[in-house]
């Protein structure tokens, strides 16, 4: 499996259904603003819920006229829809369910043994260039403050 893309690399292709079943491509996602791709292991898990709720609480710092947040996991669309409704997420959750983990593999964050992505975060600009990355293990919460800094620096 290739490692995660580095700053300056072209972002790997992405075309995944969101929690409503609508396919989102990276090219469409970054048409007018950058995309903050937040890979997470599992919907409904305590660490993932805490992280994304922290992003949700500060959504105006992330999702603005320059950046749109996209959460990505290998959970099926229906699970992501239920989780988004329960937690009130106001950003797309993308399902890398089938082919299982294909996008997570392309971004170098898929754990083959566990069958799920790790905690990878990638800021992709409107030219499809990776501008910032942060990769953590599945049990390590990512510091959301670093996401704020990356978005501010864009």
Automatic annotation (TrEMBL):
GO biological process, one term: cellular response to oxidative stress
Origin: domain of life: Bacteria
Catalytic activity: a hydroperoxide + [thioredoxin]-dithiol = an alcohol + [thioredoxin]-disulfide + H2O
Active site: 48 (cysteine sulfenic acid (-soh) intermediate)
EC number(s) on file: 1.11.1.24
Gene Ontology MF, one: thioredoxin peroxidase activity
Pfam families with a match to the protein in the record: AhpC-TSA (PF00578)
UniProt cross-references to PROSITE patterns, sorted A to Z: THIOREDOXIN_2
One cellular component (GO) term of this entry: cytoplasm
Domain (Thioredoxin) ranges: 5-154
Keywords: Antioxidant, Disulfide bond, Oxidoreductase, Peroxidase, Redox-active center
Subunit structure: Monomer.
Family note: Belongs to the peroxiredoxin family. BCP/PrxQ subfamily.
Protein function: Thiol-specific peroxidase that catalyzes the reduction of hydrogen peroxide and organic hydroperoxides to water and alcohols, respectively. Plays a role in cell protection against oxidative stress by detoxifying peroxides and as sensor of hydrogen peroxide-mediated signaling events.
Name used for this protein in its record: thioredoxin-dependent peroxiredoxin
The species this protein was found in: Ornithinimicrobium avium
Organismal lineage: Bacteria, Bacillati, Actinomycetota, Actinomycetes, Micrococcales
């Amino acid at each position: 499996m290739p490692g995660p893309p580095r700053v300056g690399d072209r972002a790997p292709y992405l075309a995944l259904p969101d929690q409503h079943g609508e396919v989102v491509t990276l090219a469409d996602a970054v048409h007018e603003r950058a995309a903050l791709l937040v890979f997470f292991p599992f919907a409904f898990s305590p660490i993932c819920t805490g992280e994304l709720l922290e992003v949700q609480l500060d959504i105006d710092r992330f999702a603005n006229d320059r950046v749109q947040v996209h959460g990505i996991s290998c959970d099926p669309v229906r699970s992501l829809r239920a989780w988004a409704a329960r937690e009130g997420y106001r950003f797309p959750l993308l399902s890398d369910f089938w082919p299982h983990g294909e996008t997570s593999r392309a971004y170098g964050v898929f754990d083959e043994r566990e069958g799920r992505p790790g905690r990878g975060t990638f800021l992709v600009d409107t030219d499809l260039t990776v501008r910032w990355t942060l990769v953590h293990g599945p049990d390590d919460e990512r510091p959301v403050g670093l996401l704020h800094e990356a978005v501010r620096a864009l």
